[in-house]
């Protein structure tokens, strides 16, 4: 790896999960010489998650490649305008424009799109139906791990889904987007639309919404492409 490349990566998880799903990506990036921080967001509100992510960016050495999966894409869109962020990478993620939130982006799903098995909110928090978690979120993850992910869900705050982005990072930072072509949580056409709007460098990879778990090599490859190419900008 070039000495001038960005060597810090900050990984931001999405809703219903925590940062442990990044383990495979983390191991590859560490082996390749990157400093990696895994953010553990409470997913209670967008403001809280952005604050936690910004602390991770501040603590990371040098400039940072900021990576978000799913709802983490909203967090990195808002936090990624930080001057230390050299580029933003979206992994099967929401990439909202100003004034958009997860709630607005999922309000009108395209015809025929899968409907995620989200249970009615309890005390302001959402969960996925455990029985349907694997099929919708992690169809290509080994069954024992998909079951663990279902049973270790992090309740996702309704307030986090409603948090609106003010100034999206993709408008001012180079961005990359990995489309998971078998995603049953965020329809691939929606992913492509957001990626195109963000003028992101796009790769398409076969995989479920949990592509970062099932195909860490493909995800790490795009992150490393981002890290090495921002030097040229």
TrEMBL record:
<dbReference type="InterPro" id="IPR000073">
    <property type="entry name" value="AB_hydrolase_1"/>
</dbReference>
<dbReference type="InterPro" id="IPR052897">
    <property type="entry name" value="Sec-Metab_Biosynth_Hydrolase"/>
</dbReference>
<feature type="domain" description="AB hydrolase-1">
    <location>
        <begin position="9"/>
        <end position="221"/>
    </location>
</feature>
<dbReference type="GO" id="GO:0016787">
    <property type="term" value="F:hydrolase activity"/>
</dbReference>
<dbReference type="Pfam" id="PF12697">
    <property type="entry name" value="Abhydrolase_6"/>
</dbReference>
<keyword id="KW-0378">Hydrolase</keyword>
<protein>
    <submittedName>
        <fullName>Alpha/beta hydrolase</fullName>
    </submittedName>
</protein>
<dbReference type="InterPro" id="IPR029058">
    <property type="entry name" value="AB_hydrolase_fold"/>
</dbReference>
């Amino acid at each position: 790896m070039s000495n001038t490349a960005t060597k810090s990566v900050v990984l931001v998880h999405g809703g219903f999960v925590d940062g442990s799903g990044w383990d495979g990506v983390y191991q590859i990036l560490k082996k390749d010489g990157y400093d990696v921080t895994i953010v553990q967001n409470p997913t209670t509100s967008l403001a809280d998650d952005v604050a936690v992510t910004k602390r991770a960016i501040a603590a990371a050495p040098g400039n940072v490649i900021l990576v978000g999966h799913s709802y983490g894409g909203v967090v990195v869109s808002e936090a990624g305008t930080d001057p230390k962020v050299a580029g933003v990478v979206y992994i099967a993620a929401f990439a909202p424009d100003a004034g958009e939130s997860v709630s607005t982006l999922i309000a009108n799903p395209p015809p025929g799109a899968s409907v995620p098995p989200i249970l009615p909110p309890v005390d302001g928090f959402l969960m996925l139906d455990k029985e349907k978690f694997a099929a919708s979120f992690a169809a290509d993850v080994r069954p024992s791990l998909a079951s663990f992910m279902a049973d270790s869900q992090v309740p996702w705050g309704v307030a986090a889904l409603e948090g609106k982005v003010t100034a999206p990072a993709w408008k001012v930072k180079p961005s990359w987007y990995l489309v998971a072509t078998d995603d049953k949580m965020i329809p691939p056409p929606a992913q492509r639309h957001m990626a195109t709007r963000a003028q992101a460098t796009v790769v398409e990879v076969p995989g479920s919404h949990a592509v970062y778990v099932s195909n860490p090599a493909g995800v790490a490859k795009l992150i490393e492409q981002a890290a090495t190419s921002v030097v040229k900008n």
